[in-house]
Amino acid sequence: MSRLTDQPLVYASLGTILGNAQHLFHKIAEGCATLDVQPVISLGRSMESESIPEFPGSAIAVRYAPQLDWLKRAALMITHGGMNTTLECLTNAIPMVVIPMVNDQPGIGARFNWSGCGESIPANSVSVDKLIKAITQVLRVPSYRENARLMQSAIERCGGVTKVADIVELAASSNQPICRVPN
């Protein structure tokens, strides 16, 4: 993208399935506009039928983004805390600001606070000031990235997606719960 700057990249995606999150995207862009960062916002399906809106500051908005490619460049991810995005971020040692909305996302956000890999702000209490505080804290305090690297190492030691696939295949073929996985 020719519009990218040399500022730290803040990649924001609130999933591809949930409803319209335009108000949250505006708050993210407004918060980032006050910081020395380059926000890239992936709108997903939440705004599929609408034109891509203009956001405050230097935010670049796209319908879809190659998330794994963006994570290689990102200093921080702002996410809804879906399991796929969460694991992709941790696999790439990217700290997060989580805005949980539904299902297991509040629990995932709480785990990010607990593990020190990020900060969580419930969707119903997101404000520009809270976003600025969380983004600034996660970018400036080195322990967030260090903790994300520790999680990345733990995922690698556990066998990553290959191990998960083995467990799923074992469970499917045995038709039994799997309590202990053979090495």
TrEMBL record:
InterPro entries in alphabetical order: Glycosyltransferase_28, UDP_glucos_trans
Question: Per UniProt, which keywords does this protein have?
Answer: Transferase
Q: Which Gene3D superfamilies match?
A: Glycogen Phosphorylase B (3.40.50.2000)
Q: Which domain of life is it from?
A: Bacteria
The biological processes this protein is annotated with in GO are: antibiotic biosynthetic process
Mind listing the GO molecular function terms for this protein?
Answer: hexosyltransferase activity; UDP-glycosyltransferase activity
Leader sequence range is: none
Q: Which Pfam families match?
A: UDPGT (PF00201)
Q: CDD domains, from UniProt? A: GT1_Gtf-like (cd03784)
Protein's UniProt name: MGT family glycosyltransferase
